[in-house]
TrEMBL record:
Organism: Flemingia macrophylla
Region span, Disordered: 128-194
SUPFAM superfamilies per the UniProt record, alphabetical: Cupredoxins
InterPro entries per UniProt: Cupredoxin, Phytocyanin-like, Phytocyanin_dom
Biased composition (Pro residues): 129-140
Protein name (Swiss-Prot/TrEMBL): Phytocyanin domain-containing protein
Chief location bin: membrane
Organism domain of life: Eukaryota
Signal sequence annotation: 1-25
Length: 224
């Protein structure tokens, strides 16, 4: 039962983290409302990239008029020289939605005419995603709860002694150490037997008296 509870908790935590990452993803529109066009000045897209923090898990979207523009993903060298001899990816239709799966640096240009030299190029810096929040603490199951035993009083009203300890022995007074009180009389085995014999003889005599009286009365009646 406990094993199934742990599996349920782990599955719920994984689902929670997946939903959190999905819901926390941010969608960025390159160029904002202007989109992907020939910029009004050469550093327009560079400024845009520096003012937007993009993390792994976010989404970057390029919107453009595909009659006049395109989107090319290139290497850093071709980005710097505004060439597209060995493009990594080519996008000729809009919109282009790119999920940022991991940390890295991506280079994009427009290969039409001299638009790249006019500033239609951008570097996307993808940073690490923020750490997810810690899962809520798991409450201990009843089988894991510590068991506490409260001490109970013994019938004489004293607390029970710990296991392995012996009860305190009663104190005895020896002659000469009881504050000067004389020792009490002691009985010997011989004295006990004499007392028993005396009591037994007295009981026998008392029981024999009535019997002799009855015997004397019968004898007198017979002699008459």
């Amino acid at each position: 039962m406990l094993h199934h509870q742990n599996l349920f908790v782990l599955s719920f935590a994984a689902l929670f983290l997946a939903l959190f990452c999905h819901c926390s993803a941010t969608k960025f529109m390159v160029g904002d409302s202007a989109g992907w066009i020939i910029p009004p000045y050469p550093t327009y897209y560079s400024n845009w990239s520096q003012t937007h923090i993009i993390r792994a898990g976010d989404i970057v979207e390029f919107k453009f008029d595909d009659k006049f523009y395109n989107l090319i993903q290139v290497s850093q060298q071709e980005y710097e020289h505004c060439t597209s001899l060995e493009p990594l990816r080519i996008f000729n239709s809009s919109p282009v939605i790119l999920p940022m799966k991991e940390r890295g640096v991506l280079y994009f240009t427009c290969s039409i005419s001299n638009y790249c030299c006019l500033g239609q190029k951008i570097v996307i810096y993808v940073q690490d995603s923020p750490p997810p929040p810690p899962p809520p603490p798991q409450s201990p199951s009843p089988s894991q709860a510590p068991i506490t035993i409260s001490p109970q009083l013994s019938p004489n009203g004293s607390a029970p002694q710990p296991y392995g300890s012996s009860p305190p022995s009663p104190t005895t007074n020896t002659p000469g150490t009881d504050g000067g009180n004389p020792p009490g009389p002691t009985s010997t085995p011989g004295g006990n037997s004499n007392a028993v014999a005396l009591v037994g003889g007295r009981s026998f005599t008392e029981s024999l008296g009535p019997l002799l009286s009855m015997l004397g009365a019968l004898l007198g009646f017979w002699m008459m």
